[in-house]
Amino acid sequence: xxxxxxINLTEWQEEVFKRFIANPINTILxxxxxxxxxxxxxxQQLALYQSLNHRGHSVMIVSPTMPQSRRLFKELLxxxxxxxxxxxxxxxxxxxxxxxxxxxxxxxxxxxxxLRGFNCNLLILDEAAFIEDDxxxxxxxxxxxxxxxxxxxxxxxxxxxxxxxxxxxGLTGMSNVISIDWCDFDTSRFLSPEKLEQYRHQLPKLRFQxxxxxxxxxxxxxxxxxxxxxxxxxYKPKQGEIIKAGIDWAADGQDRTxxxxxxxxxxxxxxxxxxxxxxxxxAVKKIGDFLIANHVNEVEVEKNxxxxxxxxxxxxxxxxxxxxxxxxxxxxxxxxxxxxxxxAFQTETVSIIKNDxxxxxxxxxxxxxxxxxxxxxxxxxxxxxxxxxMSLAICYHLASNAxxxxxx
Length: 408
Description:
Radius of gyration: 26 Å
CATH superfamily of the largest domain: P-loop containing nucleotide triphosphate hydrolases
CATH class of the largest domain: Alpha Beta
Distance between the termini: 74 Å
C-alpha cells in the first residue's frame, strides 16, 4: 500500500469519507454543496484513497466539460508532485497510473458515446447537476461489473435530472443511496456573512440561490428577471445628458429589430423602437432617425450573423455622428449581460419605461440547463420573443460602463 500524507479535511469533507468507508460496495453517495467549500479537494482525496489503498483499482472522474477535467487532472498531478507514487501519466488522455497498478481516468461528459466500454471500481461525478441524464445512462454500466460505488458532487440546479432525483432518494431512505447536504454545516470560514451579503447584491437571485445558498430551483421559479415592476419610471433625459443605445437585429422573419436608449451612468431607459416586417434599408433609415432624434452619442449593436451587414448599413446611414460598437453574442457573453441586467433589477439600479412588449418578454424569460456545455442558458420561454430583452441588456451593458461624469 502506498502512503501519502493527506491534507486536513473539514468536518463536511470528513462526513463524506466516513459514509464512503462505512458503507458496502454498490452505494450511491450524493453530495449537495455550495460554491467554494472544497468539492474538488474532497473528490480528489476520495480518488486517491481508492487508488492508493486498493492495488489495481480504477477510478473514473467525469466533469461536465473538458476544461474542468483538465483542471482536476492538473491539480491532482500538482498534489502528487515529488511523492514517487506515479508510474505513468498521459496528459493527452488525462490518465494517471500509480506504482501499485491503480489508475485514475479524467473524462468529460462532452465525450458522449466515447464514454462507453469503461469499467471502474469507483465513479465520481463532478458538478453532476450539469451533466445530462443520457450521459449518466451511458456511465452507469461502467460500475456494473465491479459493483462500483458512485459519488456525485454538485452545486444544485433544477428540481429535475438524475442528480436531483438521487438526492431526493437518499433523503427518503432508499437503501443504497446516501445524501449529504453540506449546507447543514457551518462553512463560514470560507465565506463570511459579510462576503455572502456582498454576493447577494452582486448576483442574480437564482444564481445566488444555487451557488451560495445551495438550493434547488423549482420549475415555478426559473424566471430570470425579478423586481423589474419596481423599476418602471417614465424618465425624461435632461439637456446635455449622454444617451446610449443597444440594438438587437432581426435574425429571421419571426424576430423583431429593437432599439433601446438609456442614459449613460445613471441607466434610466428613455425610449424603445420596435420594428417588424421591415426590409433592411427601411429599417436602417428608421433606426438612424430614431438615434438622432433621441440624441444618442454611442450605440452598441449585435454583430452575429446578419448583424454585421446591418451594422455596415447603419454606419453608412449615420456617418461619424454616432459611435458604433459591436457586441459578439456567445452563450457566455449573453449570460454575462443578462445576469448583469437581472442584478440591476434586484438592486433597483436601472429603470425602464412602461412598454407592454418589454414587460411581457421580461416576464417570460427563463433560465435553462445547457445540454452539452455543462452550463446554464438564458432564453425566452417557448413560443415567446426575447428581442426587447436583448436590446435592453445590450444597452444596459453599454450605459452602465459609461463614465457618469461625462457631459456633451
